[in-house]
Design brief:
single chain; alpha+beta; 2 domains; 4 strands
């Protein structure tokens, strides 16, 4: 079971994926869910009673992430096939940019 809801922050809507937890130790608990919002760098197993609070709190986490100033760059040479594959993976995983996808994968942020 996986549901996607959208929270609005300023003029944009961000997906929040709510699913049954895959943790075998917690999967038998009926009120335990996994909540994931990539834009907020949030992926946690929570009790379903926390959902209202999370929906209110996630826009703050998104704003914190957006406020972080990025001043350094890394140049990377890749083939056109690699570029196409990376762009497709970023889009498939709900990333708004290839840079954020590569950054998250390189830093192994869950």
């Amino acid at each position: 079971m996986e549901n996607i809801i959208y929270i609005q922050h300023w003029t944009r809507k961000y997906p929040v994926i709510i699913s049954k937890t895959m943790d075998p130790e917690l999967s038998d608990m009926k009120t335990t869910i996994n909540v994931e919002c990539k834009e907020a760098w949030f992926n946690q197993v929570r009790d379903i009673t926390d959902l209202t609070w999370l929906i209110e709190y996630l826009p703050e986490l998104i704003e914190e992430r957006r406020q972080r100033k990025k001043q350094n760059t890394i140049n990377l040479r890749i083939t056109s096939e690699e570029k196409t594959k990376i762009e497709a993976l970023a889009k498939q995983n709900w990333y708004s940019s290839v840079s954020s996808y590569i950054r998250d994968k390189a830093l192994v942020i869950n």
